[in-house]
C-alpha cells in the first residue's frame, strides 16, 4: 500500500511539472501577460504622442497661429508696430531678449 501511495505521488508530481514550469505553464503565461500589459501601456503612450504631433503638424500646415506663437516664444519676434513688454517678478533678473531683425522691404510680412 505504501508503494502505491508513493508511486501515485510521483505520478502526480510528474503531471504537475508541465502545468507549472513547462512550455505553456502558468508561470510563463503570467510573464507573457505582464509583457503584453507593458506593450499596451507603451502603445497608448505612443498613440497619445502621435495624436499630439499630428494636431501640431495640422495646425502648422493650416493656420498661422502656431507659426506666430513659435516665432514669439522661441525666436522672441514681435509684429511690426507692436510693443514688447516684459514683467519681471521680485528677485528675478531680466534676461535680455534679442529683437528680430527689421525686414528689408517695408511691405514684407513679419510674423
Automatic annotation (TrEMBL):
Subcellular location: Cell inner membrane
Keyword presence, Secreted: no
Cytoplasmic topology ranges: 1-3
Protein keywords: Cell cycle, Cell division, Cell inner membrane, Cell membrane, Coiled coil, Membrane, Transmembrane, Transmembrane helix
Keyword Cell division: yes
Family annotation (InterPro entries): Cell_div_FtsB (IPR023081), FtsL/DivIC (IPR007060)
Sections of the chain in a coiled coil: 29-63
Record's bilayer topology term: Single-pass type II membrane protein
Pfam entry (one): DivIC
Periplasmic side stretches: 22-111
GO biological process: cell division
Similarity comment text for this entry: Belongs to the FtsB family.
Quaternary assembly: Part of a complex composed of FtsB, FtsL and FtsQ.
HAMAP family per UniProt: FtsB
Function field: Essential cell division protein. May link together the upstream cell division proteins, which are predominantly cytoplasmic, with the downstream cell division proteins, which are predominantly periplasmic.
Protein name (Swiss-Prot/TrEMBL): Cell division protein FtsB
Gene that specifies this protein: ftsB
